[in-house]
């Protein structure tokens, strides 16, 4: 079983509110289908979630409840609109996908639902969303990847994003890390990404990647804008960053 995250940076245009990258997402769905392996799918919120969550400060907890209630409804609605578009792409590619949203909160039943779906041959799809966990917060697709990687027997975790992989220094194109251990990720520098991001971009992702690799699962970061890379990565041929599992 492989767990794949279709990053908000690749399935949406993070610089334009609620802009879906239809052509890229349909191609990525085809690549997942043609690789022919059992998969669990997570997708990011991109410009269907981050700008809305930021506008209503949903990543800061309840600071202005009256106004934020509208923001919660709007953000959840908007990420569900994106989810439906992703589901359409996956179904178009022949993947028997079913949607399992994290809203209103994640508990054991979330995993149970995903396990039941897998048992019956379905492909669970979840996504970055707003959650009510006693307060209000945002659960990123990266955190959902940690949960799936921990709860399922996973062979590898693939993060599909809009860059070629993890750069030691994002200002230096020649510093792409092709393969490394979890420890070596300590030396990575981060810079802000394009568009509003409430889940700290690559820095947050690297935190999740470390958790997953420490739990004994290989993690790959690849560029979803380059055709064929996702299919190859699913088959173990990684053109991007391969983070070796910690043994
Ligand atoms: N060291 C780094 N290596 C690669 N990307 C980085 C790095 N530091 C910052 N970034 C930025 O992180 C972005 C990817 O994170 P993010 O936008 O959150 O992706 P996603 O939407 O797939 O979660 C890249 O577009 C890049 O601009
Ligand atoms: Mg992100």
If you had to describe this structure to a student in words, what would you say it looks like?
The structure is a single chain. The chain is of the alpha/beta class and 247 residues long. The protein has one domain: Carbamate kinase (3-Layer(aba) Sandwich), CATH 3.40.1160. Helix content is 38%, strand content 18%. It has eight helices and ten strands. The chain has helices spanning 8-11, 22-35, 50-55, 65-92, 108-119, 141-151, 201-214, 229-234, and strands spanning 2-6, 39-43, 97-99, 123-127, 129-132, 136-139, 156-161, 179-180, 218-223, 240-243. The chain has an eight-stranded mixed beta sheet with strand order 3-4-2-1-7-9-10-8, with helices on both faces. A hairpin with a 3-residue loop joins strand 5 (129-132) and strand 6 (136-139). Helix 2 (22-35) packs across helix 4. The mean pLDDT is 96. The structure holds adenosine-5'-diphosphate (ADP) and magnesium ion (MG).
Quick rundown:
Helices cover 38% and strands 18% of the residues. It has 247 residues and is an alpha/beta fold.
Provide the CATH architecture.
Answer: 3-Layer(aba) Sandwich
Order of helices and strands: EHHEHHEHEEEHEEHEHE
Task: Tell me the structural class.
Answer: alpha/beta
Number of strands: 10
Query: What is the residue-mean pLDDT, rounded to a whole number?
Result: 96
In helices, the fraction of residues equals 25-40%
CATH topology: Carbamate kinase
What is the name of the CATH superfamily? Acetylglutamate kinase-like
Radius of gyration: 17 Å
**According to CATH, what is the class?**
Alpha Beta
Number of helices: 8
Distinct bound molecules: adenosine-5'-diphosphate, magnesium ion
The shape is: globular
Distance between the termini: 19 Å
Could you give a short account of the major beta sheet?
Answer: 8 strands, mixed
Within the largest sheet, what's the order of strands?
A: 3-4-2-1-7-9-10-8
Q: Unreliable runs, pLDDT <50, ≥5 residues? A: none
